[in-house]
Write a structure and sequence with these properties.
Layout lengths: L2 E3 L5 E3 L28 H9 L11 H4 L5 H18 L4 E6 L7 H17 L4 H16 L1 H17 L6 E5 L5 H11 L4 E6 L16 E4 L2 H10 L1 E6 L4 H15 L8 E4 L1 H7 L2 H6 L12 E3 L2 H14 L5
Parallel strand pairs: 3-4, 3-7, 4-5, 5-6, 7-8, 8-9
Antiparallel strand pairs: 1-2
Helix pairs in contact: 3-8, 4-5, 6-7, 6-12
Amino acid sequence: MTESRDGNGGAKPAIPKPAHPHRRQAPLPWQAAKPAEEDPQAFARVQAILNSASYRLAENDAEFLARNELRGERLLLEYHKPELMLGEHGIRNAIVVFGSTRICEPAAARRKVAQLRDKSAAAPHDKTLRRQLAIAERILAKSRYYDVAREFGRLVSVANNHPESHTVIMTGGGPGIMEAANRGAFDAGAKSVGLNIDLPHEQYPNPYITAELCFRFHYFSLRKLHLLERTRALVAFPGGYGTFDELFEILTLIQTRKIKPIPVVLVGEDYWRKVINFDAMVDEGVIDPEDIELFWFAESAQDIWDGIRRWREQSSAPP
C-alpha cells in the first residue's frame, strides 16, 4: 500500500481496491483437497465425509428435518411460509368455501350414473352395483351445488376484485366443491387460494387455484389456522368428515368467542337438517338456542352473497 499526499502536504493512506465479492487471488487452505502425494487415501476419506448425513446443511437435510424432535421447527416453517407469501401477494381477507370432494360437476355425475346403470342392468342381482348406483344418483342430485359454488366464487371475485375491499376465495384446494369455488374465481380472472393437505396417497390440487397461492400442509392444525386467520365468512356446502371438522371448529370458536363472530352459511338446508339435528341439540340442553343463530341456510349463490353482505351491514363491518 502506498501513501499519497493531502492538500496540506501530509501523508494519507491509499484506499485499496475493493476485494472481489466471490473470488480470491489465492485460495484458502481448505479450498483445495489434500494432495494425493501427501496421503493417497485422503481424497476417498474426504468424499466419505462429504457424503455423510452429518455434513449436510441442516436446512437442506430433509431426513433430519423429518425427525420427531424437529416437529416444533416444522410447525413454525409451515406457519411462516404461507403467512409470508400471502402477505407478499396482499391477501388480507378471504371467504372460505368447503364441501365434499366427491360432489363433481353435473356432466361428470351424469356419466357416472349412466355407466353404473349399464353395469347394473347387465347384472341385476349384484347388490354392490345397486348400492353404487344409488349413491351415484344421490351425488348427481347434489351436483347442482357444484354450479352454485362456482357461481358464488365468481360473484365474490367480481364484487371484491379491487384493492379497497379485496377479498379472495380460499378453499382446501381439492376437487369437488372446492374446485368449483376456485373455478368461479378463475372465470372472473381473479386470484384464489388453495390450502392442500399432504396425504399418504397421491393427490393433485385442483387446476383453478392461482399457482403461486397454492400451499401444501403436513399438519391439519396449521392448515386450519391459515384458513381462519384471514376468514371473513365460511360457506359450507354438503360434505363429510372434513367439512364437519371445519364447520364445527369455527362454530365452537364463535360460540366461545375465541374469535369474533363471522358469517357462517350452510348451503343446502335439506341436506344439513337431514344429517345434523340442531334443534335436538338444543332440546337436549347441550347447546343454547342462541347457538343455532350462529349460522343460516342458503340455496343459491346470490342468496349466499346477499346474506353475507346483509350480515356485514348489520355488524357495521364492510362486506
